[in-house]
Structure formats: structure tokens, C-alpha cells
């Protein structure tokens, strides 16, 4: 059965046995620094720190980091472009009151204000995504679910997340097997055939996922399932040194960002 590359990396990573709380402190701290402080220089510093942490001490393959960032980057770039383009901005000389525009395409224009907002949004989003990947690439999902249960998150929420996670592997395996069968029958030979095969693949996967979810629900009901499927937690290593180093790194990021922002504002 096919697996998630980022989850496989978390299982095989150097931080596999490290306590979830320790890793969450570093990851969520980086997220807060990236989102709360001004985008320059906090966001580039957080992004660089996150990459160094993942490919350095955590030993996450750089190729995996790039692959994991590829899909979020599509949404980040689309969001940045939508912010950069303003609707109805006045060009120079039109009424004398509108902001100047770098470019104009009918009612659409890119102004200095919209471009600055787009760059800031993109920087925040990239840095925050890399900070979240620090936790995602070093912590298997089963450990995250166990940590949520220890934090007294309602069992219903944890079980929905657990079942959804397990169903992902079923869907990926179904997509792979159906697509291989279609490719063996030349289902992707040509543009029209590819579109038809892609539609049939989507319909088959949706139907199979619905049937598998129904069978899973019936199986759980037949086993007397009522609230939660509790499993034995794995032993994890808590490290005061790791926590101390994480706090020092976060403090240095905050101090350096504020110092650069102050110097930039003073000049």
C-alpha cells in the first residue's frame, strides 16, 4: 500500500522518539514569530531556521522538504497575486487622488501598497508553512493524535482525524491501482482519452471511498465501538536541553528581527 512520504520520513527521522511537546514548542514558536512580527526580516529568518532545523539536526531529506512545500506554494502564490492586483485603482493623473500604479490592465492595477501587502503576505505564509513542516516532518500522525488525546481534546474529534488519516492510505492505494489499470489499457494516450480516464478515475475513487467508509463504520459498530480506540503510547524522550535551545533560538529570532526593524525605521 502506498504511503505518505512526509509520514515515512517522520517514522524514520532522527527525532522520531523525541517528545511531541518539545517539537511542538519549537515549531509553534517559529509559527508565532513568523506571523506576529513584521515580515522583514522575521519571515526570511524563520524560513531559513526551519530549513536548517529540518535538513540538519532532524535529518529530513532536502528533496522531501521541496516536495512538501510544492503544493502549499501554489496556493500561496495564487493568494499573493490576488492581493497584488487591485481593482479600480486610479492611474497617475486620473483625478489626482488615486495611488500610482506599476501596471494597469483595464480596471486592474498593481499599486505600491498592494504589492507591499502581497510580498508581506507571501513571506508570512512561506515562513509559517516551513515552520509547520518542522513538526509534520518529524512527528508521525499517530504521535500527534496521542498528544491530542493527552491534551483532553474530545475523543470524537480525535477519532474523526484518525479515521480520515487511515482512509487516505486506502484512497491513495485505490488511485494507484486504478490508474495503473487505465494506463495499461492506453487510457492516457491522447488528450481526450486522458480527460475521460481522469473523470472515470475520480468517480471510481469517490465511489470506493464511500463504500470503504460505510464498511469501516459497520465494522466498528460490530465490535462495540462507542467512544475511542485507545492504543498504547510509545515511550518518548523529553529533553530539557532541547527545550532550552529552542527557547534561545526563538529569543534570538525575535531580538534580531526587532533590532533590524528598529534600525531600518530609524534610518
Write a structural description.
The chain has 267 residues and is mainly alpha-helical. It folds into two domains: 5-139 and 237-266, no CATH class; 152-222, no CATH class. Helix content is 71%, strand content 3%. The protein is built from nine helices and three strands. The protein has helices at residues 5-12, 20-36, 39-55, 62-84, 112-136, 141-150, 155-184, 191-222, 240-266, and strands spanning 85-87, 103-105, 108-110. Helix 7 packs antiparallel against helix 8. The N and C termini lie far apart (59 Å).
What's this, in brief?
With 267 residues, the chain is mainly alpha-helical.
Give me some keywords for this one.
three-stranded antiparallel sheet; mainly alpha; transmembrane helix; globular; 267 residues; Cobalt ECF transporter T component CbiQ; 2 domains
Secondary-structure blueprint:
Blueprint: H1 5-12, H2 20-36, H3 39-55, H4 62-84, E1 85-87, E2 103-105, E3 108-110, H5 112-136, H6 141-150, H7 155-184, H8 191-222, H9 240-266
Antiparallel strand pairs: 1-3, 2-3
Proportion in β-strands: under 5%
In the predicted model, the low-confidence regions spanning at least 5 consecutive residues are: 91-99
Number of structural units classed as domains: 2
SSE string: HHHHEEEHHHHH
Rg calc = 24 Å
Going by helix content, strand content and strand pairing, the class is: mainly alpha
Give the biggest beta sheet.
3 strands, antiparallel
Terminal-residue CA separation: 59 Å
Number of helices: 9
> What characteristic shape results from the CA principal axes?
globular
Number of strands: 3
Which oligomerization state do the chains in this entry correspond to? single chain
Helix content: over 70%
List the strand order in the largest sheet: 1-3-2
Which whole number gives the mean pLDDT? Answer: 81
Transmembrane segments: 24-40, 117-142, 242-264
Subcellular location: Cell membrane
Main location: membrane
Membrane topology: Multi-pass membrane protein
